Amino acid sequence: MFITFEGPEGSGKTSQIVLLAAYLREQGYKVVQTREPGGTSIGDQIRSVLHDVNNREMQSVTELLLYSASRAQLVRELVQPALAEGKIILCDRYADSTLAYQGYGRGLDLQELKMLTEFATGGLKPHLTVLLDIDVERGLARRQIGGDEMNRLDLEAVSFHQKVRSGYHTLVAAEPERWVIVDADRPVEIIQQDLHELVIKKVATLPSGSVIK
Ligand code: TMP
């Protein structure tokens, strides 16, 4: 089963994924935890180019193609093989980040982004996508307090991140059966409890054998 996690900056995705992976392993599932951009050796090299705060001259189209290249590698090297082995893949960001950031945020053409994403992923869609939703200014402040690595996109104005967040809501409305919105402005353990319930519920809906213990 392929589960992706999306959200504005500072939504706490990464910490939630670590806890969820540990919980699912305790339940006997085989879990692969990964992220975008990155998750493979090639993807991690692309990530450092993308996030280097010195690369201020990077064009939106260049950015788009680099995220897509990292994704193309991840799908083929890691996600598809893990799916074939009945594992649960927890991925910190995926194609919806491209629609939210490069599409709604940067203003690139959404139809073109969808075509490129289809090409990069070979059409692979998540079974479930969790939107860890948080007010943009709360999220950005949390990131600064947390002392996380700051990347090129963190340097964008609040208005950019607001477009990203509302873009996510538009994506959820267009495909509600794939998405679940989780309020990320709550204590970590309460959010985690919600995630346990919704993942276990989702596993039960899949054909038997697609997730192996
Ligand atoms: P994160 O690992 O802290 O979530 O950082 C990833 C950053 O990259 C975040 O600012 C969102 C951005 N991003 C895009 O703009 N487009 C994409 O397709 C992906 C995967 C990430």
Q: Could you provide a short overview of the structure?
A:
The protein has 8 helices and 5 strands, in the order βαβααβααβααβα. It is α/β, with parallel strands linked by helices.
State the major sheet. 5 strands, parallel
CATH superfamily: P-loop containing nucleotide triphosphate hydrolases
What proportion strand? 5-15%
What do the pLDDT scores average to?
A: 96
Query: What is the tally of helical segments?
Result: 8
- SSE string, helix = H, strand = E? EHEHHEHHEHHEH
Using the coordinates shown, work out and report the CATH topology: Rossmann fold
Please indicate the count of domains.
1
List the ions, cofactors and other small molecules found in this model.
Answer: thymidine-5'-phosphate
Determine the structural class based on helices, strands and strand pairing.
alpha/beta
In spatial order, strands of the major sheet run: 2-3-1-4-5
What is the class in the CATH system?
Alpha Beta
Distance separating the two termini: 12 Å
What is the gyration radius calculated from CA atoms? Answer: 16 Å
In one word, what is the shape? globular
Walk me through what this model shows.
This protein has 213 residues and is of the alpha/beta class. The longest helix has 25 residues, at 60-84. The protein has 8 helices and 5 strands, in the order βαβααβααβααβα. A 5-stranded parallel sheet has the order 2-3-1-4-5, sandwiched between helices. Helix 1 crosses helix 8 and helix 4 packs antiparallel against helix 5. The protein has a single domain (2-204), classed as 3-Layer(aba) Sandwich (Rossmann fold). The structure holds thymidine-5'-phosphate (TMP). Thymidine-5'-phosphate (TMP) binds next to helix 4.
